[in-house]
Amino acid sequence: MFVKINTNWYICYMNVGTTKAERTRNFIIEKTAEIFNRKGYAGTSMSDITEATGLTKGSIYGNFENKEEVALAVFEYNRSLVFNTVQAQLEKAETYFEKLMVYGHVYRDVIASVGNRGGCPILNTAVEADDTNVPLQLSAAKALFSWKKSIVHIIEKGAEAGEFRQGVNAEQMAVSIIALIEGGVMFSKVTNDYGNMDHVLATVQALVRVIKA
């Protein structure tokens, strides 16, 4: 199974703004998204931004207060690329078991796709921000909490429907799945071998099968 990140939503995103200012902001975000994801906040210069957009510094600062504000908007954009791709697969799954198994296969293809854009935005931002950039750190944490909440919801609903064993610690399972996936992303990126995700996701699938009723 191969899943390609749907770039059609770029067009929708770019057309969301109804004013010239909104369209310009969206343009800046879209044009700098890959740069920030590859170079990080500290590594991305204003020159990188102006070169990618073809706009002047005055135009950039006319739409964003500073580089950090651009970075925060870009992080949400990059995060949404991954989220929307996974969400599309979740919506196709008919049972809670199948939904949870989505995390055991779709990320192999998602990471291979976003790998061309610099890797997982959540992992990249979390590692770079750490304690040096609180706003970015909080954005990464919020994304992780949202991801965890989604998995916990699937497990709890699956247990109610009789698909998963009663008494399963949904939060522990959710954190474990996320940690495995992000660890696999890190390992694959460092070794430049995305085949390592196969081993990690096989473990995720095994965990899901263990809690099946």
UniProtKB/TrEMBL annotation:
Molecular function terms from GO: DNA binding
Highest taxon listed in the record's lineage: Bacteria
Gene3D superfamilies registered for this protein in UniProt: Tetracycline Repressor, domain 2
This protein's record includes keyword Transcription regulation: yes
Domain HTH tetR-type: 22-82
Keywords, in A-Z order: DNA-binding, Transcription, Transcription regulation
DNA-binding region: 45-64
Name of the protein: TetR family transcriptional regulator
Organism taxonomic ancestry: Bacteria, Pseudomonadati, Bacteroidota, Cytophagia, Cytophagales
